[in-house]
Specification:
The chain is of the alpha/beta class and 258 residues long. The chain starts with 8 loop residues before the first strand and ends in a 5-residue tail after the last helix. Helix content is 36%, strand content 27%.
Length: 258
Amino acid sequence: MKEIFSKINHQHQVISIRGLKKSFDDFDVLKGVDMELRQGENLVVLGRSGTGKSVLIKIIAGLLKADEGTVNVLGQEITKISERKLDSIRLKLGFSFQNSALYDSMSVRENLEFPLKRHVKNLSRKEINSNVEMILEAVGLLQAIDQMPAELSGGQRKRIGIARTLILKPEIMLYDEPTAGLDPITCIEINKLINEVQARFHTSSIIITHDLTCAKTTGDRIMMLLDGQFRYNGTFADIFAHTEDERVKLFYDYNFVE
């Protein structure tokens, strides 16, 4: 099990959510969610597919609007701020999409240069090259700098997607199902990378997953989403001590953890 990262600030909350509700037509997805992310922490939001995990981080990123509740990100109540201020908050959030969201017509180098050129003004060519090479080295794929996304494996695409997210040096990382669709060995590598990103870049992270190996390996703390609410909160061992809850027991029994 992952040891608690020593730099976690248990007093400083970088995200605080209270009473969050979200419905689609007559389907209630989130039913009054309370959650906090602490500075320097890897927080895993664990739940089965379709339980609202991805909806939650899309609301945090301002990509969806909540029906009710408050969402405070880095001291800003995002449900009440202007679009301009929301854009400035988004630059401090790194969103690692499930499908990596790379531009297929651009090389790896161009994919990483794109957010730099768009959001960081007056960088020299030397500075751009240095930033791109540093981030690729951090994810172990400097040798792929001039390849096209179609030439990469699924695991490599995932790493490049994380690299492009990191290039703007976000304070908070949002990982949406980071191991989905990957083989077991590649999953281990991605889990290791998530921990390396936390240690090297001092990020605070929310990791959305239904993969227990990912949860156990990366999570300093785990919150389990069941029936639209967080029912359990703690370490991996804490969560799966609740075997009297049939939903928890089934979740454990149908995952390969060891």
